[in-house]
Amino acid sequence: MKKITFLILLLTMVVEIRAQLFPVLGGQRAGISTAQFLKIGVGGRATAMGDAFVAIDDDASALYWNPAGLVLFNDNQVFFSHNDWVVDIKHDFLGAVYHLDKYNSFGVSVTSLRTDDMPVTTEFAPFGTGEYFSYSDLAISLSYARKMTDKFSFGGTIRYMEETLDKLKMRSVMIDLGTFYYTGLGTSRFAVVVSNFGNEMAPDGDVVLWGSRKQSEWQSFSPPTIFRIGFAFEPYEDEQHKVTTSIQLNHPNDNSENVSLGAEYSWNKMFFARGGYKFNVDEQNYTFGVGVKLPINIANFTMDYAYSNFTKLGSANRFSITLGL
Fold first, then answer.
1. What is the DSSP letter of 72?
2. How many other CB atoms are there within 10 angstroms of residue 225's CB atom?
3. How far is 127 from 206, CA to CA, in rounded Å?
4. What is the per-residue pLDDT for 219?
5. What is the pLDDT along the chain (325 residues), one digit of tens a residue?
6. 213 in a domain, yes or no?
7. Total domains present in the chain
8. Which sign, positive or negative, has the C-alpha torsion 280, 281, 284, 288?
9. What is the extent of the structural domain holding 12?
10. Which of 27, 167, 212, 266 gives 242 a disulfide partner, CB atoms 3.0 to 4.6 angstroms apart?
11. Which of 325, 319, 263 is nearest to 43 (CA)?
């Protein structure tokens, strides 16, 4: 326990020193990537813990956070997450995980983001032309994980993504790579994940501008690649009570580095209370949520809720359901 405490203190000191010395490092990169919907986290549990989840990942939400986590639980699971995002944007995630055996697992998932129809406006028709447009995103992913030893596992995801803005459509293929390792010091473990790695992409399609001019060539953008390192452990655990803590360093390719902290309290593995905080993330800060896990006739049923606070944009509410078969 002393070794674990020392590691946590050391990591916290490194993060704090880094934040003080380089508080805006990378901020000049903001806005250089597309497909931003891939950066919106899924699951009430992970979100309530401030998205500090890559080193926990012991349910089907690992399809998003860390594919190496697909072998960290025993039952086959179906997972659904709904997110009432800011400015009336709807974000949904549906996934399923199947265990081939105790060493190999695979999963599939679908992510969607959509808006309501919006009126088309121009400089000469500021109240609308009578036409409407919409914006939507879709991603379909296939994941695989393998447990190499009782302490180490790795996983990968291949993802097809398309983004539609009125008459323009952008397509790409990306990959995620993740690892998960139990250190052998108590319950401590750490994970390393690279998400949304791929080539630059540009829209396809034509837009008719004022004066019947046609625009058909568009600038290309990078995918929203994120490098994450997480560390988690249980400082207290007995037959009824369990406390899980997590810290995570996030390095996006389109903004400054940031740090997430999360904690979860579990009672009898049935009722859960969670909280988290994000440091150096624009507009976002604290999160919290609750969860309940109940056995029913056909499956183990888990429902989680998370509240995310934004400093200027209000808040976001996320619900998720997991069925373990």
1. S
2. 19
3. 24
4. 84
5. 554 444 444 444 444 444 444 445 555 666 678 889 999 999 999 999 999 999 998 999 999 999 999 999 999 999 999 998 887 889 999 999 999 999 999 999 999 999 888 888 877 888 888 888 888 999 999 999 999 999 999 999 999 999 988 888 899 999 999 999 999 999 999 999 999 999 998 888 777 776 677 777 788 889 999 999 999 999 999 999 999 999 999 999 988 899 999 999 999 999 999 999 999 988 889 999 999 999 888 889 999 999 999 888 888 999 999 999 8
6. no
7. 1
8. negative
9. 2-119+132-204+218-324
10. 266
11. 319
Adjacent-strand bridge partners of 137: 113, 163
Measured at the CA of 109, the angle between CA 296 and CA 52, to 5 degrees, comes to: 80
DSSP one-letter code for 22? -
What does DSSP assign to residue 178? E
pTM for the whole structure: 0.86
Amino acid, res. 37: F
Is 124 a member of any domain?
Answer: no
Backbone phi, then psi, for 83, in 5-degree steps? -130, 115
Q: Which residues of 243-280 are buried (b: 16+ CB within 10 A; e: fewer)?
A: ebbbbbbbebbbbbbbbbbbbbebeeeeebebbbbbbb
* CATH number of the domain that residue 90 is part of: 2.40.160.60
Q: Are 293 and 75 in contact (CB under 8 A)?
A: no
Tell whether 61 is covered by a domain.
yes
Is residue 126 in a domain? no
* Residue located via tokens 């393998």: 146
C-alpha angle with apex 108: 134 to 94, nearest 5 degrees?
A: 50
310's tokens: 């934004």
Whether the CB-CB separation of 277 and 253 falls below 8 Å is answered with: no
